[in-house]
Amino acid sequence: MSSESEEQQLSKKAAKKEAAKLEKMRRRQEAAALASAASSLSVEEEDSYSSNYGDVTLPELKSCSKPDAGNWSIAISSMDWTRVGALTEELKEKEVLIRGRVHTTRPVSKNMAFVVVRERGFTVQCLVATHEAGVSRQMVKFVAALNRESIIDAIGMVSVPGNPIKGTTQQVEIHVRKLYCVNKAMPTLPINVEDAARSDAEIEAALQAGDKLPRVNQDTRLNFRVLDIRTPANQGIFRIQCQVGTIFRQFLLSEGFVEIHTPKLIAGSSEGGSAVFKLDYKGQPACLAQSPQLHKQMAICGDFGRVFEVGPVFRAEDSYTHRHLCEFTGLDVEMEIKKHYSEVMDIVDRLFVTMFDSLNEKCRKELEAVGKQYPFEPLKYKPKTLRLTFEEGVQMLRDAGVEVDPLGDLNTEAERKLGQLVLEKYDTEFYILHRYPLAVRPFYTMPCYDNALYSNSFDVFIRGEEIISGAQRVHVPEFLAERAQACGIDVNTISTYVDSFRYGVPPHGGFGVGLERVVMLFCALGNIRKTSLYPRDPQRIAP
Fold first, then answer.
1. Which residue, 148, 304, 494, 539, is the most exposed by fewest CB within 10 angstroms?
2. Would residue 148 show up in a list of annotated catalytic residues for this protein?
3. Tens digits of per-residue pLDDT, 495-522?
């Protein structure tokens, strides 16, 4: 073949190749034009319903008072809010406005999606479907793409389905016509609230069935506590805790007590010993208060008669147990004694019976939510609290074959065993043990009149664990200084406290209890970190 023929052949191939390339480009342009036309139609459709959904703009979120600041502002301006927990059948066919978190989303098709909205532990199913007026495919797509835990506002009609709704607390459904995202959560969360809310029983049952569900351990929960406390059980725990504090205040106020607030920065240590957080106070040695003990007694010296305090308590002990924290909320009481230190125990008795009755009556839903994840038996207690002397408790232990020092303190195992014995004999898990050996009580504890080896003191137990310590105090200044020295405390560091008794003071006593421990033991949770919002223990100081 001549070179000229070869050139012609190559020229034909190049022409074919170029023609194919042009044809391909034409097809692409044609497809792009069709896509553009479809997009234009879609935009037109979206625009006609765009005011019914979308992200709330930043200007609207700046507490703008103009009702027409944006689509969201206009939509909610004339409506009242309804709590998710208040959505019941009585609201059937009524339009409601709700706010909550995206718990889960479930797209069914291009025309329909479900979103479960959660608010403070309560959940409701919402339906977003194009057969509802004003709902477009684009709106369905927007809802289906919402990230879990995002904050949304939804407006829709309450409907009551024929069949029970599984997986939500509320047995109604919202047919959504408007939905706005107030705040987006990140697409991937460190822990899923759904995983954190599972009980051990659910996880074990899944394993038996061949499925493996995520288990969120304690440290992970505490590292991402802001997510963990969103679970229904945790919402219940801290609402129960709130009720404990409320009852504590209300009961004591009704009994003529005055609430006080004592300093947490003090010179020396409030109870002696080395387990204090030391600090420099403008060049002077100081520490965080282990207790409001000294100052609440001084309030009695100041003629308040009966006082109480709710405040932080700091303990620097290296206690790596299920019931100890380095910082907890103390519920403290101090009161004048007229005749006998049993008057203090009378207050404990009536206060806590009132508290338990109120929790069982007013916190049923919260207790149910806690029990669903952390099953427990209701606390057994009597209308009149059982009282045993320390010697009687020691004898019960000895009769059961447990040897204990009659003048020493009870260790954890002995306390649990005694709790078991008391439950078997008296059918109660709440009782008072009094007349403790003097050697195991603080320096300000009054000795017994009939035996100086024992003291006018008491501990209170729930489910076999100590929860309250109380006593009559030494109010004679010379004897108080003597007791302090005997316990190794430098009297100079508590001179203001001792001197306050030189000006005249009535006999008095009191007690202290940890708020977190009350809730832990009432709900049998097994670990005090579950009842501390942001726990502080020897290994944790964040978040």
1. 539
2. no
3. 888 998 999 999 999 999 999 999 999 9
Measured CA to CA, the distance from residue 31 to residue 25 in angstroms comes to: 10
Let me know if 387 is a catalytic residue: no
Say yes or no: 225 and 287 in one domain: no
- Catalytic residue check, 469: yes
Q: What is the CATH number of the domain that holds 128?
A: 2.40.50.140
- pTM of this structure: 0.87
| 297, 176: one domain | no
Q: How far apart are CA 117 and CA 169, in angstroms?
A: 11
> Which of 475, 471, 472, 473 shows the shortest CA–CA distance to 501?
475
Choosing from 173, 429, 466, 516, the catalytic residue is: 466
198, 230, 323, 475: the active-site residue? 323
Active-site residue (options: 177, 221, 306, 315): 315
Of the residues 271, 317, 343, 391, only one is catalytic, namely 317
pLDDT at position 32 is 55
| Catalytic, out of 99, 137, 324, 416 | 324
Higher pLDDT: 319 or 455? It is: 455
* Cα 128 to Cα 156, 462, 507, distances in angstroms: 9, 49, 69
- DSSP code for 270: S
Within this chain, do residues 460 and 324 fall inside the same structural domain, yes or no? Answer: yes
- Which of these three, 120, 152, 183, is where a domain ends? 183
Domain hosting residue 76, numbered range: 53-183
Catalytic annotation on 364?
no
324 a catalytic residue: yes
Say if 16 falls within a structural domain: no
* Neighbouring C-alpha atoms within 13 Å toward the C-beta of 152: 33
Q: 426: domain CATH number?
A: 3.30.930.10
Per-residue burial over 309-343, b = 16 or more CB atoms within 10 Å of its CB, e = otherwise: bbeebbbbeeeeeebbbbbbbbbbbbbbbeeebbb
Asked if residue 225 and residue 236 are part of one domain, the reply reads no
pLDDT tens column, 325-346: 999 999 999 999 999 999 999 9
Examine the domain organization and report whether 380 and 511 are in the same domain: yes
Question: Using one digit for the tens of pLDDT, what is the confidence trace for 121-132?
Answer: 899 999 999 998
* pLDDT tens digits for range 410-462: 999 999 999 999 999 999 999 999 999 999 998 999 999 999 999 999 999 99
d(CA 99, CA 75): 13
Residues 290 and 174 reside in one and the same domain: no
- 323 catalytic residue (yes or no): yes
Work out how many domains the chain is built from and give that number.
3
**CA 396/CA 403 separation, integer angstroms:** 10
Tell whether 100 and 223 lie within a shared domain: no
Check whether 400 has a pLDDT greater than 60.
yes
Instruction: Answer yes or no: are the C-beta atoms of 511 and 320 closer than 8 Å.
Output: no
Q: Is 466 a catalytic residue?
A: yes
Cα-Cα-Cα-Cα dihedral sign, residues 90, 93, 96, 101: positive
Together in a domain, 160 and 211 = no
